[in-house]
Amino acid sequence: MTRYRVLVEFDGGGYCGWQSQRGAASVQDAMARAIERMSGEFTRPTAAGRTDAGVHAVALPAHFDLAGERRAAEVQGALNHHLWTAGEKIAVHGAAQVADDFHARRDAKQRRYAYRILVADAPSSLEAGRVLHLRRALDVGAMSRAAAILEGEHDFSSFRASGCQADSAARVLESLAVKETAAGLLLREGATEIVVRAAAPSFLYNQVRIIVGTLLTVGLGRMSPDDVAVVLAARDRTKAGPTAPPHGLYFLSCDY
Amino acid sequence: MTRYRVLVEFDGGGYCGWQSQRGAASVQDAMARAIERMSGEFTRPTAAGRTDAGVHAVALPAHFDLAGERRAAEVQGALNHHLWTAGEKIAVHGAAQVADDFHARRDAKQRRYAYRILVADAPSSLEAGRVLHLRRALDVGAMSRAAAILEGEHDFSSFRASGCQADSAARVLESLAVKETAAGLLLREGATEIVVRAAAPSFLYNQVRIIVGTLLTVGLGRMSPDDVAVVLAARDRTKAGPTAPPHGLYFLSCDY
Fold first, then answer.
1. Is A90 within 8 Å of B122 when comparing Cβ atoms?
2. Does residue A182 have a pLDDT over 90?
3. Is A193 on the interface with B (CB under 8 A)?
4. What confidence tens digit (pLDDT) does each residue in A69-115 have?
5. To the nearest whole angstrom, how far is the Cα of B9 from the nearest Cα of chain A?
6. Which chain B residues are Cβ-neighbours of A121 within 8 angstroms?
7. In chain A, what are the domain boundaries?
8. Nearest CA of chain B to the CA of A197: how many Å?
9. CA separation for the pair A58, A250 (Å, rounded)
10. Could you say which of A53, A162, A223, B134 is the most buried, measured as most Cβ atoms within 10 Å of its Cβ?
11. Active-site residue list of B
């Protein structure tokens, strides 16, 4: 048996997320089909984390085992071939043989996400389904101050979905940064892109999206940065902002 | 009669280009339908230039006339509404009322294009149809030296498609720059993005794509930068590199 790790990149539009679900198109099932076409072996790969429907990934680590040994480059090429011919919006990169006890989820030390917001008076066709489009300007300074309050170790009960099954809501948010750019190859004049980046050993269910929804509430002036401290202390989901839509969110990468 | 100018952004995948063509989906026809749904008036908008099938645009200026007068913001909002509900991958921004004699094509002073190349050992799913994917590294220094040779006023006969109907192949290429970036939000580790930017008052048919195809030939080491001077002097399309595929090309913007 040989264990392989790949980094999975996908456009989340059209998928129910990573996790296999009956009657829905998941990234995990698409990957399992590609592995089976390549090797004749059926195995479901294990990823560093689930992702919600519509959420994208740049480099989501996943591992799986094959009975025979193949070169990692060959595995990568074959999987991309089968994913491509099946019309999947999935590609794998960074393929490597790893130790038999490597575990993409359990061994992950830091996970990184980014959330893209386009502030423009008209929607974007090139970035449709890839950014959250807002017409109103955001107070990025206030968002940054609010973000600083959320950094560190806290009980994030206010920032997890009701369906979250984690025993404890204590998490260490290692960094949460808000950055605005007004120039970019595909960014039209007058538009700005705001990116929220978050890094932590692990996240609660919907934590990043609820944090972004709360930062947006601050950015729109409906909540002050200081209010965010009150929300955090309340340990009550109803006090935080809405869950930001999935299509602006990207799983960036993971450290081991 | 009131003349309006809009900046058209579109994902060129699925369109035969800007120009209306019988039996094909063009951006111009989709725009004309949206204008008609908004105003009840049928008029084909005029753009700063045609684009090839599959080529994208960030801000392609176009003008059209309406019998009645409407606020530019209202025109923009209504067009985006009708484009969106029709499922078009087109959006308009920067709408303005302009002088009756403004002409999006004839008055254009400078047109700017960019061509995106992703160098990575695996294809991209997030950027599929939006970048040219190459597996082999490119010599960006050599590409830059070749680009410098093409800048300025030249007879670009070697760099225009056989179907080009311009009387003269003399054009002023005001700038042609090659830039490499190894970091970006959506750029995976180990991958680089190379962007070729070109600016000129006007371009010949397929000129940017043939220039990029030639720069790629140089970047791959199959032609030296000095060879490009020979190609230019030859005034012979068969001496230049291939026409780069359309899906890496973006019409960026236009000055008046």
1. no
2. no
3. no
4. 899 999 999 999 999 999 999 999 999 999 999 999 999 999 999 99
5. 6
6. 73, 76, 93
7. 2-98, 110-255
8. 10
9. 7
10. A223
11. 52
One-letter amino acid for residue B43 of the chain: T
DSSP chain A: -EEEEEEEEE--TT---SS--TTS--HHHHHHHHHHHHHS-----EESS---TT-EEEEEEEEEEESS---HHHHHHHHHHHHHHTT-SEEEEEEEEE-TT--TTTT--EEEEEEEEEE-SS--STTTTTSEEESS---HHHHHHHHHHH-EEEE-GGGS-TT---S--EEEE-EEEEEEES--TTPPTT-EEEEEEEEES---TTHHHHHHHHHHHHHTTSS-HHHHHHHHHHT-GGGS-PPPPGGGEEEEEEE-
Q: Which residue of A has its CA nearest to B195?
A: A185
Kindly determine whether residue B59 and residue A189, on different chains, have CB atoms separated by under 8 Å.
Answer: yes
| pTM score, whole prediction | 0.96
Q: Does domain A2-98 have CATH number 3.30.70.580?
A: yes
ipTM: 0.93
CATH number belonging to the domain at B110-255, selected among 3.30.70.660, 3.40.50.720, 3.40.50.2300, 3.40.50.880: 3.30.70.660
Residue of A nearest to B75 (CA): A122
